[in-house]
Write a structure and sequence with these properties.
It is globular and about 90 Å long. The protein folds into three domains: about 220 residues, Glycoside hydrolase family 3 C-terminal domain (Rossmann fold, 3-Layer(aba) Sandwich); about 120 residues, Sandwich (Immunoglobulin-like), CATH 2.60.40; about 300 residues, TIM Barrel (Alpha-Beta Barrel). It is about 25% helix and about 20% strand. The strands form ten sheets. The protein has a six-stranded mixed beta sheet, with helices on both faces. Strands 8-28-30-31 form a four-stranded mixed beta sheet, with no helix packed on it. With about 775 residues, it is of the alpha/beta class. Helix 1 packs antiparallel against helix 14 and helix 15 runs parallel beside helix 17.
Length: about 775
């Protein structure tokens, strides 16, 4: 185990502990008391689910901790007979890994059937029962509404009923990648309930830390509804190839708090601690287009702990329907001793109060009385600041871009008969190739070396100008997977992927998965860190920064330049198989956590790749599905995390999604990529496709239509076996010849790729 891996593991343990969310703790059930006799049920105490499957989680680790061993090492008095029973049962009934693709591992594993007499006898020598319930999910495998997916299995329910009947105290740990049915905890009167998520290779130790006294400070980044059917995206979620985003901007708490708060079991931002806190507002100043709040947080309980101050905006009645509350900022305290107080300065631009008016095509805040709520969660109102906008504020005017082509209805309100819908505005005309980049003319046939660019002798434009069409096309193809040009086991090589390009000194960069640690296909080891949801549930920007700084250290140690992550798609529906990679149902949380990750990587002079742009919210038919979504929802919810990341981090690379948005595959969606992301957001970096993605129209996507990709402002196709030989038979050169692609567009993509290469460690390795 390398020094970089040791540092990552240590930080990962802290992050996993801080991301655990405690939802119930009746009568001080936790932390565990000294000499308390504990019996642990559930195979996940041993077969701990450390991460999801697929590119976002399949990291080869040196070791993996489990809950049972960690508690034993912590000195907890465990029921040895029950522990031996589970060890023997797991040995005889090993984990099913499935077969074929990496996501084929079953969502749940078989559990032993326990009769009442067995549980009753166990309770005779133990005070407390801990039941660990496990789930998995991953790339190409969504969860499902049924037993073993969203619902508990009959065996899990029988175990819970039995331990509730015979044990004085019952603690349930949910070792899951995403929210599952939590209503049973209420029905069975569980004493303590914790989402322990999937904490990476140190997750077992982190669970023991929290159970034994480290005060939990995780807070939910998703709303937990009373039933799956209560989520507005539930109806028709996994049906059909066209996915209609009828709930529009009303995702998660935006929906529940506005229309049906009674359907919420645990609200967004909620989480308990072993202590109590009081939040107050000392001052509020609005000046120069910025709002500054001074929040005071005091530990009023008897244990050390951390608190999160969440700031929500409650707008006045507006021209268009708006959510009742919107998160606009948050901050987390340091560890506070009993009686200790900390002041936090929280500031944000006034533009955070705005919404997108897709009738008048602008971001605006309507006049009226606004309330800023300093809270512990979306239901809390610890402190309220009121202020008045005396006129409508227009923050940015826009053109209609990436709007739907076909009519559909979107949610706009509720009345006594139920939900109300209105037609979503559809596009009037399509924007195509507006002011394409001009060709950089060749002043001569002389070619330059990349070191000439690094040393300031020539510009990137001058370097690109004399490159041939074939060289430019080659530069816009990634090679992989497991290219021999870079470190073995990585996901792609890009840059100098031909002898001619390398002859000019163009370096070869290595990129690999993923958000939860470095994934090497050749079996080489790296550190598996907590899943994205768990990191976000820490609400700790600095801690996420530290985790990715450590991952950056492992990248440098392994000659990896570009991390294919973090993932930051919105949790639109709890059944999405890749929710574990992503952060939240909320765009601001998603954008802030992603920016913290990118900033951490940057300290090691490596880069991350934000993915997947955009509306990639289902694994079923992910390569052919079409997300039909209003322009307002696209801008306010699904592209908003990228806009926040642009504000807070200035990302250098993004990856497009497999799906289409409003009829255009994401990798060739001109209005979204060039119109919004490059045009309005000002993104200057490299855009890549996902691996072997379809391009062009959603009705007839093609992996060969790289001309559509380049016209749209996406720079590099991932991946081909041989970029120089054009093994993917793409149409770049043919499109240049027939005029459907310009040399200027191809040159622009090459420049974006080269600018990124010049920032990466591969430049030094290529000397």
């Amino acid at each position: 185990m390398t020094e970089a891996m040791r540092k990552t593991a240590s930080t990962a343990r802290r992050a996993a502990a801080e991301g655990i969310v405690m939802l119930e703790n009746k009568n001080g059930a936790l932390p565990l008391k000294r000499r308390e006799k504990v019996a642990i049920f559930g195979r996940a105490q041993i077969d701990y689910n450390a991460g999801g499957t697929g590119s976002g989680g399949s990291v080869n680790t040196e070791y993996q901790t489990d809950i049972l061993s960690a508690l034993e090492n912590s000195g907890v008095s465990l029921n040895k007979e029950l522990a031996d029973f589970y060890r023997d049962w797991v040995l005889k009934n090993p984990v099913s890994e499935g077969g074929g693709m990496w996501a084929s591992r079953p969502l749940f594993q078989e559990e032993p059937e326990l009769d009442d007499d067995f549980v009753k006898k166990t309770a005779e020598t133990s005070d407390t029962a801990i039941v660990v319930i496990g789930r998995s999910s991953g790339e190409e495998q969504d969860s499902f509404f049924g037993k073993g997916g969203w619902l508990l299995t009959d065996t899990e329910l029988n175990t819970l009923r039995a331990v509730r009947a015979y044990f004085k105290k019952v603690i349930v740990l949910l070792n899951v990648p995403a929210v599952i049915d939590t209503s049973r905890a209420e029905a069975l009167e569980i004493d303590a309930l914790l989402y322990i998520w999937q904490g990476g290779q140190e997750g077992g130790e982190a669970v023991a830390d929290v159970l034994c006294g480290v005060s939990p400070s995780g807070r939910l980044t998703d709303t937990i509804a009373r039933s799956y059917q209560d989520y507005p995206s539930a109806a028709g979620y996994d049906e059909g190839n066209k996915i209609y985003y009828k709930e529009d901007i009303f995702v998660g708490y935006r929906y529940f708090e506005t229309f049906c708060p009674e359907k919420v079991l645990y609200p967004f931002g909620f989480g308990l601690s072993y202590t109590e806190f009081k939040i107050s507002c000392r001052s509020a100043v609005i000046a120069g287009g910025e709002i500054k709040l001074n929040a005071a947080v005091k530990n009023t309980g008897a244990a050390v702990g951390k608190e999160v101050v969440q700031v929500y905006a409650e707008p006045p009645e507006c021209a268009l329907p708006r959510p009742k509350l919107t998160l606009i900022e948050f901050a987390k305290t340091r560890s506070l001793r009993p009686g200790e107080e900390q002041e936090l300065e929280i500031k944000f631009p006034l533009s955070r109060l705005s919404y997108y008016d897709d009738r008048n095509l602008c971001y605006k805040a309507d006049k009226g009385t606004y309330r800023l709520i300093l809270a512990k969660n979306v239901r809390d109102r610890s402190a309220v600041v009121r202020f008045e906008l005396y006129k409508d504020e227009i923050f940015r005017r826009c053109r209609s871009l990436a709007a739907p082509r076909e009519p559909f209805s979107r949610l706009c309100g509720f009345d006594e008969n139920g939900p109300l819908f209105e037609p979503a505005p559809i596009r009037k005309t399509a924007l195509r190739r507006e002011n394409p980049p001009a060709e950089i003319k060749r002043p001569g046939r002389k070619k330059f070396m990349i070191k000439d660019v690094r040393e300031g002798v020539v510009s990137v434009n001058e370097f690109v100008a004399p490159l041939s069409d074939k060289e430019l096309a080659c530069l816009c193809r990634g090679e992989g997977m497991n290219s021999r040009r870079v470190r073995p086991g990585t996901g792609t090589a890009f840059g100098g992927v031909s002898r001619g390009l390398r002859g000019l000194g163009v370096p070869v960069a290595a990129g690999t998965d993923g958000p939860s640690g470095l994934r090497f296909d050749n079996g080489d080891k790296a550190t598996l860190v907590p899943i994205g949801t768990m990191l976000a549930c820490s609400w700790n920007k600095k801690l996420v920064f530290d985790i990715y700084r450590r991952i950056g250290g492992e990248m440098r140690e392994n000659d990896v330049d570009l991390l294919l992550g973090p993932g930051f798609n919105i949790h639109r529906n709890p059944l999405c198989g890749r929710n574990f990679e992503y952060f939240s149902e909320d765009p601001y949380v998603s954008g802030v956590i992603a920016a913290s990750a990118l900033n951490g990587l940057r300290t090691k002079h490596v880069c991350g790749t934000l993915k997947h742009i955009a509306a990639n919210n289902r694994e079923k038919d992910r390569k052919t599905s079409d997300s039909i979504i209003s322009e307002r929802a696209l801008r306010e919810i699904y592209l908003k995390p990228l806009e926040y990341a642009m504000e807070l981090s200035k990302p250098e690379a993004i990856m497009t999604a497999y799906n289409a948005v409003n009829g255009e595959m994401c990798g060739s969606n001109y209005e979204m990529l060039t119109g919004i992301i490059r045009g309005e957001f000002g993104f200057k970096g490299m855009i890549m496709t996902d691996w072997w993605a379809g391009l062009g129209s959603a009705s007839a996507p093609s992996k060969r239509d790289t001309a559509a990709m380049l016209r749209a402002g996406c720079d590099i196709y991932m991946v081909q076996k041989s970029p120089k030989a054009n093994s993917g038979a793409d149409n770049t050169l043919a499109a240049l010849k027939n005029g459907s692609l310009t040399r200027g567009e191809l040159q622009q993509a090459a420049k974006n790729i080269l600018r990124l290469l010049l920032k990466l460690p591969c430049v030094e390795r290529g000397k």
